[in-house]
Amino acid sequence: MVDQVTFVKDKDSVRNSGLADANQTLMKITAWVIMAIAVTLSLYQLYTAGVAALTALVQRSIHLGAILSLTFLLKPAFSKLRKDKFSFALFLDWILVALSIYCTFYICNNLTAIFERQGDWLFQDKIVSIIGTLLVLEACRRVIGFIMTAICAMSIVYAMFGTYMPELIIHKGYSIERIATTLWLTTEGIFGLPIGVAATFVFVFVLFGAILETTGGGAFFIDLAYALTGRFSGGPAKAAVVASGFMGSISGSAIGNVVATGSFTIPMMKKVGYRSHVAGAIEAAASTGGQLMPPIMGAGAFLMAEFTNTSYLTIIKVALVPAIMYYLTVLIFVHYEAEKFGLKGQPKESLPRVMTVIKNGLHFIIPVLILIYVLVSNYSPMMAGFIAVVSTLFISIIANFIRWALNNKNKTSLIGFGVSEFKLIIKALENGAKNAVMVSVACAAAGIIVGMISLTGMGLKFSSLVLDLSYGIKALAILLIGAASLVLGMGLPVTASYIVLATLAGPALMDMGVPIMVAHMIVFWYSQDANVTPPVSLASFAGAAIAKANPMKTAFTSWKLAKGLYIIPIVMAYRPLLGMGDNYELLHWEVMLTMITTTLGLVAFASAIERYFLRKATLFETLLFWLAAIGLFWPEYWADVAGLIALIIACALQKFYSITPTTTGMTNDK
């Protein structure tokens, strides 16, 4: 009996050992396949960006096929499922990968025939289209969540059953065949403008950011920010703002910025006395500005260039000043927080020296300068991104080779150095493709929404609705758009939110006389607000997780810090803040005056919110700051003068009078 039990145990042990070995082998194979797809996709994107362009449908379908394959191999069907052992779910994932490859290969292989039989579809065309659309919906569910997937599904249902809709949004309705083939076999749906931008401009710049980060560029920009701001009052917080600006100008991802810079900046802020929720909120608000800061600005800026038929260089030019104003507002709030709680900077001795940081990381600045130069030289964004990626890799290899030559002392061979650099490049290429998964899936899913809006004519109906509800008042229309963006942002990534808002709300603003560039910039800014606006503010929640703070408390604090995100777009609608406009002629001094008054207005607004300038403000001084902010924002010269006078009086009272602890009045301390 004992021998039989022992035999059974040994048999089970062998079986379990065999399963463990099989699972380990399967995981290795999967990891190799993921790496192969990711690296191949990155090289393919570089080839099409800088060597040879392909037909739009071919370019986008190959890109999406690889992205879908990565999604199904990287993201489990459900959160509780594990990817480290064989299961039916994993077997199903491999089937989905095969279907993704086939459905996109079908387009490439039958491209000419598809163009020729537009509207006269074969049976296999319909089947492939239905399967391809379902694959995108499943990828969206895994990567982004149920909310955006539900919105995509609702848009399809709306297109199918238009005749049963309320009179305001009624239409004739379309068949499954028409919907599926429009979405999959044309450039009016999934393979429309959103995925086109993701498959060209966005991917190359995401890859640029991944290579810069992998080679040490992220750490360099963070160290530089600390070296520049660490010794000032609230230094770590100001460093967080500056570092997020640097990182955001490369990656353009709010949550990515929080995770990348927050892991360093948030503990530093807490160390010098910032409350946990404030530290997390500062990082969230600063990181949100990353998508507003040139030269990258996230995927939305590339989409804006396409939507407005404007060069990307123009987008950068008009976006720079408002982005600086946003960061200035955050810095002011941060400064007031530090002064109110007596938070001092770090000793100079404990901070990295500016020249040392620049000396060690000078080669990371060169690719950024090259990128700016090629953009200014009117190269296409794709070519600019290609040059930036190649120059980053080339300069990084040279810098590492010089270090190896100076410090090696015959410890490693040249072959060893080459192998290590090759592995670093492979890792960067792999990370670039993985980082692009969310944006590309979001753009593909947004293509479903945009395609159905276009097919049903919903865009014009929505524009009419906004015009009716706002009574033709621009400020009210902008507030309605802000509310819509907040609701959309709870379930959609920023890029998808911008696409939907630009399609639905952009025409309404233009009907009110807002120039197309200004209208899209307003929508672009408001599409960011879900990152820092309760109840669902993902950047704030990410900051709260790192700071170990209450998520909602962090969210409300970041909402306060990011007030420039809500004010500056309204100023854009009424004043020439962007330095351009179709309905009026602008003089340089008008643009400069707008920049000055808006900046002063933001200072007054922050002082009113915080009730602090040089010291805690009295009720009368706070009222003056509020009046100054309103006057400086108001689009009339007399209001600017009145606001400036109120601000001067408030600042003078703060400077020359102080409040003693023994009285509620003011004591003259001249």
Question: Can you lay out the helices and strands and say which pair or pack?
Answer:
Elements: H1 2-50, H2 56-74, H3 88-109, H4 111-116, H5 123-143, H6 146-160, H7 176-184, H8 193-214, H9 217-229, H10 235-251, H11 254-271, H12 276-288, H13 298-307, H14 312-340, H15 354-376, H16 381-407, H17 414-435, H18 437-456, H19 458-470, H20 474-489, H21 494-504, H22 506-511, H23 516-526, H24 538-547, H25 551-561, H26 564-574, H27 588-610, H28 619-633, H29 637-656, E1 657-658, E2 667-668
Antiparallel strand pairs: 1-2
Explained architecture:
- This protein is mainly α and 670 residues long.
- Among the domains are: 200-434, no CATH class; 589-670, no CATH class.
- It contains 29 helices and 2 strands.
- The chain has helices at 2-50, 56-74, 88-109, 111-116, 123-143, 146-160, 176-184, 193-214, 217-229, 235-251, 254-271, 276-288, 298-307, 312-340, 354-376, 381-407, 414-435, 437-456, 458-470, 474-489, 494-504, 506-511, 516-526, 538-547, 551-561, 564-574, 588-610, 619-633, 637-656, and strands at residues 657-658, 667-668.
- Strands 1-2 form a two-stranded antiparallel sheet.
- Strand 1 and strand 2 (667-668) form a beta hairpin.
- The longest helix is centred in the N-terminal third of the chain and has 49 residues, at 2-50.
- Mean pLDDT is 80; it is low at 661-670.
